[in-house]
Design a protein that fits this description.
Strand 4, helix 7 and strand 5 form a beta-alpha-beta unit. The protein has a seven-stranded mixed sheet, with helices on both faces. It is globular. The chain starts with a helix and ends with a strand. It is built from eight helices and seven strands. The chain has about 210 residues and is α/β, with parallel strands linked by helices.
Length: about 210
């Protein structure tokens, strides 16, 4: 599908620069190639990659304040949402992924798209010495665990953006047993059951 076809089928791309579109096209091409070797996304996900993965990740951009100077993406995997944010914004992104094969893939996308971002091949709980404005994650683990991961890498004025599903109410209820959280939820534009959770402040329950 050419550029005009993408824009027709995915209206969100109307606001995206041609340079970003080209980067996303390179990324999707590499994802298709590498997905035959390592499990980055399911075949169903690959068939609906623009809506199910790219658009789903891209919608986080509207929740990034103009003051945001750094992002850490937890469990980046095949690149959602962190790599999409790196390709589509000028904000420095740290992609944290413990699977070495996936980090090689992420670095190859960055190389071929000439995009500046940092890839850390580490377990999230072992990451230290970073302090970012925003922490993101998608389809990784429970909200309780995400907050545990985020507490050491988010700066004091930062916030979290998590892409979640239909179980979000239960996850929030469970998280509140361990954390006091100030949060808002927003409906996903790509999935009727999807939710974006923005957590502005959180602290452990004493």
């Amino acid at each position: 599908m050419n550029l005009e076809g993408y824009i027709k089928n995915y209206p969100f791309l109307k606001s995206v620069s041609r340079e970003t579109i080209e980067k996303l096209e390179i990324y999707i091409s590499l994802l298709q190639q590498w997905n035959k070797k390592i499990n980055l996304v399911s075949q169903q996900g690959m068939d609906q990659v623009w809506k199910r993965h790219v658009y789903d990740s891209f919608q986080l951009i509207r929740y990034l304040d103009s003051s945001v100077k750094s992002i850490a993406d937890l469990g980046s995997g095949g690149g959602f949402p962190g790599l999409i944010l790196a390709l589509s914004t000028d904000i420095p992104v740290i992609l944290i992924e413990s699977d070495k094969r996936k980090t090689i893939f992420l670095r190859e996308v960055l190389r071929q798209t000439k995009t500046q971002a940092t890839v850390l091949c580490q377990r999230i709980e072992n990451v230290n010495a970073i302090s970012v404005d925003v922490v993101t994650a998608r389809a990784l683990t429970s909200l309780t665990q995400l907050l545990e991961f985020s507490k050491n890498i988010l700066n004091k004025n930062g916030y979290c953006l998590f892409l979640k599903g239909r179980s979000i109410d239960l996850e929030i209820e469970e998280a509140q047993k361990n954390w006091k959280i100030n949060y808002k939820t927003f409906s996903s534009q790509t999935n009727a059951d999807g939710v974006i959770v923005k957590i502005n402040q959180f602290e452990r329950v004493e």
